[in-house]
Amino acid sequence: PDFALCHHRMGEMWELGGFYEKAAASFRRGTELQPKFGPADYRLGRILLWQGYLASLNMWTIPDPTDRERGERLAREGARAIEQARTEGNEFDDPLLRQVAAAMIAYLRNDQPLAERLCAEGIRAYGRQKGAEDFHWLQGLLRRKRAEQLQSFNEALAIRPKFPLALY
């Protein structure tokens, strides 16, 4: 119970099972035990970004402003965690994850040209390696034409067939 890495691994297990609240709690506990533990900060930030994205989607005919506010709050919190992992985190030495983190930060900062460039570079560098699905998902969010969006989301699913956001 006193090792950040153990909580990080538990978070990974919960995340793989689709239990994102439990995963986020495990990643948070890991960063409480070892502040600036980069891998846990990154994974927490990614989950918060996903949750923020889902909360801000308008799935109903009557928009609910609280969903949008919740989505924006989660996205900001996720951005802080990802940025901390990228700039201050220790043990965060995976170049693919660093590139994904940079692309996510660019997306969250609404810097579309930078996000597009980072996603394209990541796709060229990592192809269909596990983890590169996030580049395709982000690229799909940045695309304007439906056919291009679907192509990007399908590429993400080719790497990770049960990627919930690409499926959605």
Description of the molecule:
The protein is an all-alpha fold. It is built from 9 helices and no strands. Helix 2 (20-33) packs antiparallel against helix 3.
Query: What is the number of strand segments?
Result: 0
Secondary-structure element sequence? HHHHHHHHH
Distance between the termini: 35 Å
Beta-strand percent range? under 5%
Q: Which term fits the overall shape?
A: globular
How many helices in DSSP terms? 9
The major beta sheet can be summarized as: none
> Which radius of gyration do the C-alpha atoms yield?
16 Å
- Determine the fraction of residues in helical runs and give it as a percent range: over 70%
Low-confidence stretches: none
Taking all residues together, what is the mean pLDDT? 87
Q: Structural class, from secondary structure content?
A: mainly alpha
